[in-house]
Design brief:
This protein has about 775 residues and is an alpha/beta fold. Helices cover about 25% and strands about 25% of the residues. The protein has 21 helices and 39 strands. The strands form ten sheets. Strands 7-10-6-12-14-15-26 form a seven-stranded parallel beta sheet, sandwiched between helices. Helix 8 (about 220-230) packs parallel to helix 16. It is globular and about 80 Å long. It is found in: Secreted, Extracellular space, Apoplast. Belongs to the peptidase S8 family.
Length: about 775
């Protein structure tokens, strides 16, 4: 291999010399990822791959010394390639080298539980439930790609954990406040990656204590996601007394492997992300959980670090679970849309934090708050934000309490009423503005949502617009209006849940609209899980004057980041029961067994404007049902070759796909495959004439089974299924069927939704359908 590369590089150098090209290193060099596709080299020969990377760089930069200084990572386990600091001309030159699939500029991506697991009915005492059948995830390794971990948290105790499996090849990488012995039988591996981040942002200064050059988590985000997925039981956990109860992860007996790729100062480098994928594949993880991504416009699947890394992981049998993004409730905002990824939407649980507001006329209204501080026993003057606008701010800006929009003299000592606006949707921004202006508290009127923002220093109560308008009417009718804040309580089981969270990104996918995204919904609103006391929130508590306050070790957080590890934990339970199932089969089981209704047998709704019944673009197959996923009856399975056909249908060239997969690929360009990919869903973005698509199901239930089709067609569409009965036996485990769609409409329509069910009397295998009829061209 090395000899071949040396000959190739020598040839390229001779050509360059004949053309008299001059290579110049520009000051504007940035990090580029030189992606070279699948790696088929034996593990014992990995050094040859790394040597070839250096040789290639040397031919461009003039010497091996320059190459060593330029290169940040050499990817040689799960796939081949490297990350290096290159100028644009150098990047263009190296893109033409044999074996180079693509040169990708480095990109900085962003990060996107007592009650939640009980709410999902994942309980140890249910003998036939997922936790019992899945042995609490015993025998599986969940890799968490995030901001690191706080290993001293009670959630990561190891006294009841088994020793790491023999196939585990990971390490416990040391660093600041984290040595090689910090790992234990729960946290069996930890690595950290910063070269790509520092090459873009500059050297990270850790002297101020806001970050650690090690796997230690200074943000809290990684600790939260890790404990949500696999934390052991911790009694009497709470967020400053709220949401008190037994905190635990979904797979408490699973091992954790930590890959710190994101930093508390902001962002995650794609070069670092690929290095973590490369190591995780080598280490031997079973599941990878990544609560991060980039906002639209989405990069192509051959340019997206998460899509590339996850492709190679899934090809090795590793399930990859990602957050769907927090840009809801707007359509076409979902991210991490590759069909081999499990993409997760966020939903609410049945817990709320009511807080009373007492007006000066003795009228009481109610909102929600997470404030647990003092100063709740007296009345404060209350004013409308736009009435005290700063001289350089307009009334609309002050109405939403945009940063710097309030007059500090007029705000001092007062409670401020602010209204959510198009330019300012966040109560977190509003309370920061009120605090900086010297206000005593905030009432923030907004679209109805169950997501509650945390306020540390001042009372902050979130209300809906009706309540906000009631308070505004009181202010306008009273000469000296005053208000008093009540104490926040924790109430469980009094609100209808789940609902798709307001912020949760929605489909269809803007990159591949024929692939249903998100795939599944899971709890992601006000989730209690372990936290890093080194985070800014933790330091606020430990620096408080009251000696009774302790550093924050558990925190309430919201986001699809919190929903993602719920699914990762459930995947661990599935892997324990069905260790040979492919990532596609596992995703199919999640999608086809999901719930469409709440505990009151009502259809699940989605927060938004307007509030509406949820559809597959809100929650994919529905809300996850952990107690059904291990027995789905039928699964829609796929292999790597299916994803290759998908990439061909996306018009990526043969060379790029061949390098990605590691073997020659000759694409037969057919966009029909986009609709015929064996996904557990069917999305038809443009239905003009009758259209037939096919799927294949694999029987994973009783050997002798007979399934009958039942259809709830999308509005305005007729649907027929052939055959309408599937009979399985010892010699027939797979069966193919065809679904024909015909539009009844003569006008162009929006997407409408329906379902195809396969039923055998005990299983209900439900496939989501989404169809948009378009006007035929005459």
């Amino acid at each position: 291999m090395a000899l071949v590369w040396n000959l190739v590089i020598t040839f390229v150098i001779l050509v360059l010399q004949q053309q008299s090209w001059v290579l110049v290193t520009f000051a504007s060099s940035i990090v580029h990822i030189v992606y070279m596709g699948d790696n088929r080299i034996k593990q014992s020969e990995q050094h040859l791959v790394e040597d070839s990377h250096l040789d290639m760089l040397s031919s461009i930069l003039g010497s091996k010394d320059a190459a060593r200084k330029s290169i940040l990572y050499s990817y040689s386990h799960g796939f081949s390639g490297f990350a290096a600091v290159l100028s644009q001309p150098q990047a263009r030159l190296i893109a033409d080298f044999p074996g180079v699939v693509r040169v990708i500029p480095n990109k900085i991506l962003s990060l996107h539980t007592t009650r939640s697991w009980d709410f999902l009915n994942v309980k140890q005492e249910i003998i036939t439930g997922a936790l019992s059948r899945g042995q609490s995830g015993r025998g599986t390794i969940i890799g968490i790609m995030d901001t690191g971990i706080w290993p001293e948290s009670e959630s990561f105790r190891d006294e009841h954990m088994d020793n790491p499996p023999l196939h585990w090849r990971g390490i416990c990488q040391g660093g600041e406040n984290f040595d090689h012995s910090t790992c234990n039988r729960k946290i069996i591996g930890a690595r950290w990656y910063i070269k790509g981040y520092e090459a873009e942002i500059g050297k990270l200064n850790t002297s101020d204590g806001v970050e650690y050059l090690s796997p230690r988590d200074a943000s809290g985000h990684g600790t939260h996601t890790s404990s949500t997925a696999a934390g052991v039981a911790v009694e009497n956990a709470s967020f400053m007394g709220l949401a008190k109860g037994l905190a635990r992860g979904g797979a408490p007996s699973a091992w954790l492997a930590v890959y710190k790729i994101c930093w508390s100062t902001g962002g995650c480098s794609s070069a670092d992300i690929l290095a973590a994928f490369d190591d995780a594949i080598f280490d031997g993880v079973d599941i990878l959980s990544a609560s991060l991504g980039s906002d639209p416009p989405l990069p192509t699947y051959v340019e997206d670090a998460l899509a590339i890394g996850s492709f190679h992981a899934v090809a090795k049998g590793i399930s990859v679970v990602c957050s769907g993004g927090n840009s809801g409730p707007y359509s076409q905002t979902v991210i991490n849309t590759a069909p081999w990824i499990i993409t997760v939407a966020a939903s609410t649980i049945d817990r709320e934090f009511p807080s009373r507001i007492i007006l000066g006329n003795n009228q009481t209204v109610q909102g929600q708050s997470l404030y647990t501080g003092k100063d709740l026993s007296k009345f404060y003057p209350i004013v409308l934000g736009e009435d005290i606008a700063a001289s350089d701010a307009d009334e609309e800006s002050a109405r939403g309490c945009n940063s710097g929009s309030l007059n500090a003299t007029l705000a001092k000592g007062k409670a401020i009423l602010c209204f959510q606006s198009r330019s300012q949707r966040s109560a977190t921004v509003a309370i920061r503005t009120v605090t900086e202006a010297g206000g005593s508290g905030l009432i923030f009127a907004q679209f109805p949502t169950k997501d509650v923002d945390t306020s540390w220093s001042k009372p902050c109560v979130q209300v809906d617009f009706i309540t906000g308008t009631t308070i505004l009417s009181y202010i306008e009718a009273t000469r000296n209006p005053v208000v008093k804040f009540g104490k926040t309580k924790t109430v469980v089981g009094q609100q209808i849940s789940p609902e798709v969270a307001f912020f949760s990104s929605r489909g269809p996918s803007s990159l591949s609209p024929s692939v249903l995204k998100p795939d599944i919904a899971a709890p992601g609103v006000d989730i209690l899980a372990a936290w890093s006391p080194a985070s800014s929130a933790g330091r606020l508590l430990s620096d408080a004057k009251s000696k009774k306050l302790q550093p924050l070790t558990f925190n309430l957080e919201s986001g699809t980041s919190m929903a993602c590890p719920h699914i990762s934990g459930i995947v661990a339970l599935i892997k324990t029961v069905h260790p040979t199932w492919s990532p596609a089969a596992i995703k199919s089981a999640l999608v086809t067994t999901a719930s469409l209704k709440n505990e009151y047998d009502q259809y699940i709704w989605a927060e938004g404007a307007p509030h509406k019944q949820a559809d597959p673009f809100d929650y994919g197959g529905g809300h996850v049902d952990p107690n059904k996923v291990t027995d789905p009856g039928l699964v829609y399975d796929m292999k790597t070759s299916d994803y290759i056909h998908f990439l061909c249908s996306m018009d990526y060239n043969d060379t790029a796909i061949s390098s990605l997969t590691g073997f020659p690929t000759k694409c037969h360009k057919s966009h029909k495959y986009l609709l015929n990919m064996n996904l557990p869903s069917i999305v038809i973005p443009e239905l003009k004439q009758p259209l037939t698509v096919s799927r294949t199901v694999t029987n994973v239930g009783p050997v002798q089974s007979i399934y009958t089709a039942r259809v709830e067609p999308p509005i305005g569409v007729s649907v027929t299924v052939v055959p309408s009965t599937l009979t399985f036996g010892p010699k027939r485990k797979k069966m193919k069927f065809k679904v024909t769609f015909s539009s009844k409409l003569r006008i162009q329509s929006r997407f409408s939704f329906g379902y195809l069910f396969w039923e055998d009397g005990s299983h209900e295998v439900r496939m989501p359908l989404a169809v948009r009829s378009v006007v035929q061209e005459f």
